[in-house]
């Protein structure tokens, strides 16, 4: 593939050998994480630097200094043929004319491979193994760090951030939980694309920035709304392994339903379906067949939705989510999708639990 000015594409190079080409095509894209020593300016989040869209960019809130950096760390090394980094805003300001691009095979030891000139740095790496890419602004700039796009040509696909997201963590109530909260934020960022794929709707654009706050005053487990997630300091200190609770709340942010006509049991059931049947399958526990009701909410309703998914329609959760998101949900949707009314489906599911 060939780069065009102002555009950076992340894709695998075409290999000359048919077998190698087939293997590269079959290999799943390598995922990555974006991090920076600099705070984000407004909505210009880190993942916009590698979203495949040259009209967006990451921008730092403060001026970049020689010790600052921006890093993409891949889940595993890839053999990179070439690397291109474009910086600066649409009007040409805030371009890097100094500084360097560095790469690392292990994510620890870095080596410079290209310098910036007129906002751009490019390197031919001839198949060198790369696990991490780091951008350093150097001594020159007196402006924010603005990264328009990072492009990689490699022996296998490198994933773009299809649903760019950044979690801002607030642990002012419990500074000792910062490491835990930062890790949870990374987990939620990593799972954000999968959640959005599960709940995709035509034309829907999910939130790109979420604030995750740990509060000592909040008495529940966690709640979400308006681009914010609030979690209980006490609960997560007592249950540090319960990351699924934050996946549930992240799902609520993605749902973003209109109006008040959506049944609460289904709203919570969809969120727990994502948690227990996408994020942590097998952890839902036993559902008591004598007490189970399809509208029991949370994990009980999630199990009901999983039953419908397996028996009637693999896309039923996405379809119900689409109706609730657009404000068009009606109970009759269950019969339209499955051919049976909701009450009958609930009784059928309850009976299946007794077998």
Task: Quickly describe the structure.
By secondary structure, the protein is α+β, with helices and mostly antiparallel strands. The chain is built from 9 helices and 12 strands.
Radius of gyration: 23 Å
Kindly report how far apart the N and C termini lie: 56 Å
* Topology as a string of helices (H) and strands (E): EHEEEEEEEEHEEEHHHHHHH
Helix amount: 25-40%
Strand fraction equals: 25-35%
Largest sheet features: 8 strands, mixed
Tally of contiguous helical segments? 9
Poorly predicted segments:
1-22
| Total beta-strand segments | 12
The assigned structural class equals alpha+beta
Give the overall shape: elongated
Mean pLDDT: 92
Describe what you observe in this structure:
This protein has helices at residues 18-26, 178-198, 233-238, 244-255, 264-279, 298-311, 316-325, 333-338, 342-353, and strands at 11-12, 32-36, 58-63, 70-87, 100-104, 111-115, 120-136, 144-154, 166-170, 209-215, 222-225, 228-232. The protein has 355 residues and is an alpha+beta fold. The strands form 2 sheets. Strands 1, 2, 3, 4, 5, 6, 7 and 8 form an 8-stranded mixed beta sheet that branches. Strands 9-10-12-11 form a 4-stranded mixed beta sheet. Helix 4 (244-255) packs across helix 5 and helix 5 (264-279) crosses helix 6 (298-311).
